[in-house]
DNA sequence: TAGGCCATCTGGTCCT
DNA sequence: AGGACCAGATGGCCTA
């Protein structure tokens, strides 16, 4: 019955998601009766015709047969014992004529279409963002919230690099990227950078936590922005300064992370992508302590907080590696299957590019 | 099966 | 009046 209200074929599949609307059983009528009773219970105050409230429940009631009765007013709900009630002021309600009903219906459909388009635009923008954050996979897309978190971390990490004029070691870099991310995403990013989260945290604990949010002291062990293909053969292939940088990074990287580590580092081949130029002009006042959303405190307590060099909070590192109890399952033992994961750090961000990007 | 994520609808608010 | 934006509700899909 209610599907008649939305007789546009293209909308029907969507409408059918609302199961109660599709079912033409007798319970529909009782539901509508309940809605009518609810209307009468609420009274005029919420059902002023001037109100925007032209929602489905009212439209449903109107279309359920009240259209035939042109004299039916909203005030007339059948409760005759309400004569003492003071007359409501304000514009008198207009009857829901079929023409008005049709206009309402069209307006709602147009609004739905606009909203759908708006959300699609938002999603395509998010897709674009997914492509420029450090880890991109066509098959294993980051969720929206994780994409935003990773993008925030990415911006912050690059801004710190530019601010300090130093290159961070890959461990610190990954840690920065993974701050506040869920465990699966942490593993994904770590996998993109060929790091097992558990192992890089172990390394971190051994070296002492150098990382601090407000005063990062990145070391120069390696430069993670130039080579995403970490195998020696990949690093040695090709020529040019780009590959030279790759090679230097890979050598340093391998020296750091391939000895005494698990075979998990022999991960699949990752395709390099160019990172977009990044602009940092001091506007990144955001602090890593600030979370993107409240649930960063609520459900994503995976952040690292290395507050000193003595590993006093190194347990937090294990929290990231294994995940806190009672939260999302940890997958630190095995990296997820990265089929077509891309890392976007082929080159160092140049200031010219940064400015160009920012002023576009 | 529960939980996470997502798309969509919907009504409210603000703005032009 | 209508559009943009937002948040809540709802149901589907997927995965552990």
From TrEMBL:
Keyword annotations from UniProtKB, A to Z: Activator, Developmental protein, Differentiation, DNA-binding, Neurogenesis, Nucleus, Transcription, Transcription regulation
Subcellular location: Nucleus
Gene Ontology annotations of biological process type: axon development; positive regulation of transcription by RNA polymerase II; sensory organ development
Comp. bias intervals (Acidic residues): 64-83
Disordered: annotated segments: 1-115
InterPro entries named in the record: bHLH_dom (IPR011598), bHLH_transcription_factors (IPR050359), HLH_DNA-bd_sf (IPR036638), NeuroD_DUF (IPR022575), TF_bHLH_NeuroD (IPR016637)
Primary localization: nucleus
Molecular-function GO terms, alphabetical: DNA-binding transcription factor activity, RNA polymerase II-specific; E-box binding; protein dimerization activity
SUPFAM superfamilies: HLH, helix-loop-helix DNA-binding domain
Biased composition (Basic and acidic residues): 28-56
Every BHLH domain range: 106-158
Basic residues bias spans: 87-97
Superkingdom, natural source: Eukaryota
GO CC list: nucleus
Subunit structure, as described in the record: Efficient DNA binding requires dimerization with another bHLH protein.
Protein name per the record: Neurogenic differentiation factor
Organism, as annotated: Sinocyclocheilus grahami
């Amino acid at each position: 019955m209610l599907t008649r209200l939305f007789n546009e074929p293209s909308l029907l599949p969507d409408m059918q998601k609302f199961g109660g609307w599709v079912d033409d059983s007798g319970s529909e009528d009782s539901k509508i009766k309940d809605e009518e009773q609810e209307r009468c219970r609420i009274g005029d105050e919420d059902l002023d015709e001037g109100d925007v409230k032209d929602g489905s429940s009212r439209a449903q009631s109107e279309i359920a047969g009240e259209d035939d009765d042109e004299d039916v007013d909203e005030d007339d709900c059948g409760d005759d014992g309400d004569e003492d009630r003071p007359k409501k002021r304000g514009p008198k309600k207009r009857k829901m004529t079929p023409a008005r009903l049709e206009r309402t219906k069209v307006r709602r459909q147009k609004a739905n279409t606009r909203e759908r388009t708006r959300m699609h635009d938002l999603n395509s923008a998010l897709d674009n963002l997914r492509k420029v954050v450090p880890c991109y996979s066509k098959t294993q897309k980051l969720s929206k919230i994780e994409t935003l978190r990773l993008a925030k971390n990415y911006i912050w990490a690059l801004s710190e690099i530019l601010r300090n004029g130093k290159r961070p070691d890959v461990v610190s870099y990954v840690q920065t990227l993974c701050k506040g991310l869920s465990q699966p995403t942490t593993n994904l990013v770590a996998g993109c950078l060929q790091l097992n989260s558990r192992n890089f945290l172990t390394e971190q604990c051994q070296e002492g936590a150098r990382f601090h949010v407000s005063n990062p002291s990145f070391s120069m062990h390696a430069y993670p922005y130039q080579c995403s293909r970490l195998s020696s053969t990949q690093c040695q292939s090709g020529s040019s300064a780009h590959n030279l940088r790759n090679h230097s990074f890979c050598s340093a990287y391998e020296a750091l992370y391939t000895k005494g580590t698990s075979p998990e580092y022999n991960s699949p081949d990752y395709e390099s992508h160019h990172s977009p130029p990044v602009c940092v002009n001091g506007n990144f006042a955001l602090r890593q302590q600030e979370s993107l959303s409240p649930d960063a405190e609520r459900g994503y307590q995976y952040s690292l907080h290395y507050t000193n060099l003595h590993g006093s909070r190194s347990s937090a590192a294990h929290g990231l590696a294994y995940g806190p109890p009672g939260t999302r399952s940890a997958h630190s033992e095995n990296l997820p299957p990265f089929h077509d994961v891309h890392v976007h750090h082929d080159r160092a961000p140049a200031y010219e590019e940064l400015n160009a990007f920012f002023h576009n």
